[in-house]
TrEMBL record:
SUPFAM superfamilies: MFS general substrate transporter
Principal subcellular localization: membrane
Entry's transmembrane regions: 12-35, 47-66, 78-95, 101-126, 138-156, 168-190, 252-276, 291-309, 321-343, 349-373, 385-409, 415-433
Similarity comment: Belongs to the major facilitator superfamily. Sugar transporter (TC 2.A.1.1) family.
GO molecular function: carbohydrate:proton symporter activity
Protein name (Swiss-Prot/TrEMBL): MFS transporter, sugar porter (SP) family
Key words of the record: Membrane, Transmembrane, Transmembrane helix, Transport
Ranges where the Major facilitator superfamily (MFS) profile domain occurs: 11-439
A matching Pfam family: Sugar_tr
GO CC field: plasma membrane
Domain of life: Bacteria
Subcellular location: Cell membrane
Origin species: Weissella bombi
Length: 456
């Protein structure tokens, strides 16, 4: 390792930069899809759904693979591999042969593996590099990076919409290689996380990294803390199994955390993020390719919502914000259907309500899901439970992206969103009756609450 000191700001910036790349690849298909549909004359929701959702299918496996390999190879090396995979997938997607649906789905799965890896690696690396007093806001920072990446992709889609359709969508997808290259170059200078170095027996290197990002008087105590935690986790890995997740003392908290992660995606957010131009087209008759300003509007709302969450994160209860957000989100989906049943309304009404949904999602369910997942699982099962929660989140995302165009092809958009609205209200009921409050409680207190609930 180089003896030259690396700025902590540089470390934190490029440590989080993977979130921007993750967000860009999630968002870019929103603008590319209308041009792709026209260029390849795609009709029916099935093919469109598979092309869009294949990214999430890859992500289900990417997160699990990256989590396992990062414990063997290191967080930094796995981020580098993910950046390379991003570049390969983006370039391959950008040179897709005409009407090669299977080829494009395959390249999207490759990108999805990289996206899933980033979703697992970035929070892990950042939490291990940041001082304890800053970890509470990490989920907010990670969410801000993701939605910033989505906004950048929406802006690029908007700027490229004047190109010929067969060039526009290919260039939109291929440009994901640029931030991937920036990430790769930046991570080349990043150090490995001290936690991984200590677990690998490389104590001198860990001490050097900590000297760059901690005060001198903090280094010894942090190294000792990492060693003690690593010993506890090593013991837990030997004494627990996947079956342990359903043991009485763990079951209540595992069900709470995993189900919240699943609901976050099944509430319908990705239906908006991926398909808003097509939603506007169906509502107004305006060509989807001409409706690319709406993703930019949603991207701005997401970024402002992430900033707002960071300002209020520790001022309100987790459950209160989830209940508030889920209730307003559910009503935003249900009200257009109710109003339309009584009177003729402006077709754009549904889009306005969708913007309200995005605003409340951005500062409640989007960031708080991962705050809750980070706090709710007992230490002995945290690795397995967090991995299961992440996989279930991607399964929900995959399902929504796949079925939404199929649903809208067979029923009105108001009815489709009303169904998602009911799911939002079901999520609220679940939080009210099955999720404990974690704000202001130590991890040991939360584990005790779960054990008591598990007896009932």
């Amino acid at each position: 390792m180089s003896e030259k000191k690396i700025s902590s700001k540089f470390i934190y910036f490029f440590g989080a930069f993977g979130g921007i790349l993750f967000g860009y690849d999630i968002g870019v298909m929103t603008g590319a899809l209308p041009f792709l549909q026209s260029d390849w004359n795609l009709s029916g929701g099935g093919v469109t759904g598979w092309i869009t959702s294949s990214l999430m299918l890859g992500a289900v496996f990417g997160g699990a693979i990256a989590g396992q390999l990062s414990d063997r190879l290191g967080r930094r090396k796995m981020v580098l591999y993910s950046a390379v995979l991003f570049m390969i997938g983006a370039v391959l997607a950008g040179v897709s042969p005409h009407n090669a649906v299977a080829y494009l789905i395959f390249t999207r799965i490759i990108l999805g593996i990289a996206v899933g890896a980033a979703s697992a690696l970035v929070p892990a690396y950042m939490s291990e590099m940041s001082p304890a007093e800053k970890r509470g806001s990490l989920s907010g920072i990670n969410q801000l990076m993701i939605v910033s990446g989505m906004l950048i992709s929406y802006v690029m889609d908007f700027l490229l919409k004047g190109l010929p359709e067969h060039i526009a969508w290919r260039l939109m997808l291929a440009l994901a290689a640029v931030p991937a290259l920036i990430l790769f170059i930046g991570v080349l200078r990043l150090p490995e996380s001290p936690r991984f170095l200590i677990k690998a027996g490389r104590n001198d290197e860990a001490r050097q990294v900590l000297s760059w990002i901690r005060k001198p008087e903090e280094i010894d105590s942090e190294m000792q803390g990492i060693k003690e935690t690593a010993a506890i986790e090593q013991k837990a890995e030997k004494s627990t199994s996947w079956g342990s997740l359903l043991e009485g003392r763990y079951r209540y908290l595992v069900i709470a955390g995993v189900t919240v992660a699943f609901f976050q995606q099944f509430m319908g957010a990705n239906a908006i993020f991926y398909y808003i131009p097509l939603i506007v087209e169906k509502a107004t008759g305006q060509a989807a390719a001409d409706a690319l300003l709406w993703p930019v509007v949603n991207g701005v709302i997401l970024v402002l919502g992430a900033l707002f969450y960071m300002a209020i994160a520790e001022k309100f209860s987790r459950r209160g914000l989830l209940i508030l957000g889920g209730t307003v989100m559910g009503l935003s989906f249900i009200l257009p259907s109710i109003i339309n049943s009584f009177m003729d309304t402006n077709p754009m009404m549904i889009v306005v309500f969708l913007c309200i949904f995005v605003a409340f999602y951005a500062f409640t369910w989007a960031p708080l899901t991962w705050v809750l997942v980070g706090e709710i699982f007992p230490l002995a099962i945290r690795g397995r439970a967090s991995g299961l929660a992440s996989s279930m989140n991607w399964v929900g995302s995959f399902a929504v992206a796949l079925v939404f165009p199929i649903m809208t092809a067979s029923m009105s958009q108001e009815v489709v969103f009303a169904i998602f609205g009911i799911i939002c209200l079901a999520a609220v009921a679940f939080v009210m009756f099955r999720v404990p409050e974690t704000r202001g409680h130590s991890l040991e207190e939360i584990e005790k609450i779960g054990a008591e609930k598990g007896k009932n």
